[in-house]
Structure formats: C-alpha cells, structure tokens
Specification:
Elements (H helix, E strand, L loop, with lengths): L5 E4 L5 H12 L3 E4 L6 H14 L3 E3 L7 H15 L4 E4 L15 H29 L3 E6 L12 H21 L4 E8 L5 H9 L3 H10 L9 H11 L11 E4 L7
Parallel strand pairs: 1-2, 1-4, 2-3, 4-5, 5-6, 6-7
The structure holds nicotinamide-adenine-dinucleotide.
The site of nicotinamide-adenine-dinucleotide has 29 residues, from helix 1, helix 4 and helix 6.
Length: 256
C-alpha cells in the first residue's frame, strides 16, 4: 500500500508541527496546514516554503477544540488535496504553572479542551473520512513524557497527555480492521516556543533548559526535527505493524 497522499497537521505554524509539516512534504505528501488565526502569517510563509520546494499545501485556520472547525479542516483538506491519508493532531498548549491543589477549573477545562477534546475531534473526523475512503490511513497525536509520568505544577497538562494515550490505544483497536494505525509521539524536552514559555513560567527559560539537559542520558535537548523523523517513520509503509503505541523521544530522560 502506498500511503502517499494528503496529510493534515494541526498547530503547524511553529515548533514541532512546523517541522512535521515540512518533513511530510519532503516525504511526498501534500499538506494541509492548520493553526489559529493569529498564526496566519507564519502559515503563509511555511506554505510558500513547501510549495516552492516540495508539494502542494493549503492553509486551514481553526481551533482544534471547536468541533465545527475540525470538521471544516478535514472537509477542506479532502476537497483541495483529494482526500485525507494522514492526520497529525499536534496542536497543544501547556497549562498555567501552578502547584496542585491551586490549579483552577478554568485552566483544567482550557487545557483539556485543546489537548484532549481537540485531539479527540481530530481523530474522530479523520477516522470517519479514512473509513469512507477505504484505503487505510495513519493517525498520530501528540502525547508527552508528561503523559507517561506525572509532572508537578502542570497537572491539567499531564492529565491531558495521559488522555491522549488512552484515546490512542483504544482508537487503534477499533480502527485496525480498516488498516488505519493510531500512535502518539511522547516527546521529552524539545526546544520550541512552548518549552521556552514553560521555562519562563518556572523561573527562566535558559536555566530551565540547562537543568533539563542534565536530566537526559544523552545530555542534550531535542529538536523539532527529532519528532518529525518519528512521524515520518510512523506514516511509512514499514510501520504498518505498529499501532496503539506512544513512542518516547526524550534522550533517555530521568527525573530526580
Ligand atoms: P508550540 O507552542 O511551540 O506550538 C504549538 C502550536 O499549536 C502553536 O503554533 C499554536 O498556535 C498552536 N495551537 C495552540 N492551540 C491551538 C488550537 N486550539 N488550535 C489550533 N492550533 C493551536 O508547541 P510545541 O512545543 O511545538 O508542541 C507541539 C505538541 O507537542 C503539543 O501538543 C505539545 O504538548 C507536545 N509536546 C511538546 C514538548 C516540548 O518539549 N516542546 C514536549 C512534550 C509534548
């Protein structure tokens, strides 16, 4: 089965999503680029870069926590790129840095709304479309090292990333018979604007990153391209026997 076709990447304007979109285009996919309205300029620059070098792209703005937006994103991908073969539900936010139990219900709802509900919508409408097409597919979501192990001060974030793993394992079981695999990447510390913002909330990004580097076996921080290469493998023909998994890409992280 040749899986080349159309991919939709959410949160594609920067960080991991941007690297994933570029990599999938290099791999031969046409790519629908999603992010929030405020990122339109960044998406246009990325779209131009991809169109000049590699493949066709479209921009589909929208908020993944809104069901109607996700339905529209999938529909425009199908209409403009001829189908949907790969969904990368990457968009996510980090919650407000607050020790539990001072976490607010507003932060809980906001974080779970994007990181869990948003990924649920992306999986659901991608799966419906892929089943309708009848040619299989690949669904990939963003979990985290914090989706495998609790993480102090960002309780809603960790809970949302555990939810993505549960959703992934369960959806994989239902979708396997349709030749659709469902997996997540579980990054450790990857140098993106999100990590910088988290570090700033914890007393300073540079000191935070330096500390995190010391907490990896390889004494390094990951790059967005390190996640993009895993996505590239998960959408390849060779990965057809891998489903329901959450692939750690974390430099051998350990916490004290
Ligand atoms: P980032 O903040 O640098 O980029 C995220 C992108 O998602 C932004 O462009 C943002 O505008 C977009 N976005 C946010 N909310 C959205 C919404 N509701 N709808 C559509 N787009 C939205 O983040 P990143 O570091 O590139 O992380 C990407 C994913 O990987 C996230 O799900 C994150 O939780 C996960 N992750 C990142 C790290 C890391 O160290 N950077 C570690 C573990 C997991």
């Amino acid at each position: 089965m040749d899986l080349k076709g159309a991919a939709l990447v959410t949160g594609a304007a920067r960080g991991i999503g941007r690297a994933v979109a570029l990599r999938l285009a290099e791999d031969g996919f046409d790519v629908a680029l999603n992010d929030l309205e405020y990122s339109k300029g960044d998406l246009e620059a990325l779209s131009q870069e991809i169109s000049l070098k590699f493949r066709k792209t479209i921009i589909t703005l929208g908020d993944v926590s809104r069901e109607a937006d996700v339905i529209r994103m999938v529909d425009s991908t199908v209409q403009d790129l001829g189908g949907l073969d790969v969904m990368v539900a990457n968009a996510g936010i980090v919650s407000v840095v607050t020790p539990f139990p001072d976490t607010t219900i507003e932060d809980w709802d906001h974080t779970l709304g994007i990181n869990a509900r948003g990924i649920f919508f992306c999986y659901k409408y991608a799966a419906q479309q892929m089943i309708k097409q009848g040619r299989g597919g690949r669904i990939i979501g963003a979990s985290s090292v914090a989706g495998k192990q609790g993480y102090a001060t960002i309780t809603p974030y960790a809970a949302s990333k555990f939810a993505v793993r549960g959703l992934t394992q369960s959806a994989a079981k239902d979708l396997g018979p349709y030749n659709i695999t469902v997996n997540t990447y579980a990054p450790g510390f990857i140098d993106t604007p999100m990590l910088t913002a988290l570090g700033d909330g914890l007393g300073g990004a540079e000191a935070y990153k330096a500390k995190r580097i010391q907490q990896t076996a390889v004494r390094d921080i990951g790059k967005p391209e390190d996640i993009a290469s895993i996505v590239s493998y998960l959408v390849s023909k060779e990965s057809h026997f891998i489903t329901g998994q959450s692939i750690s890409v974390n430099g051998g992280i350990y916490f004290d």
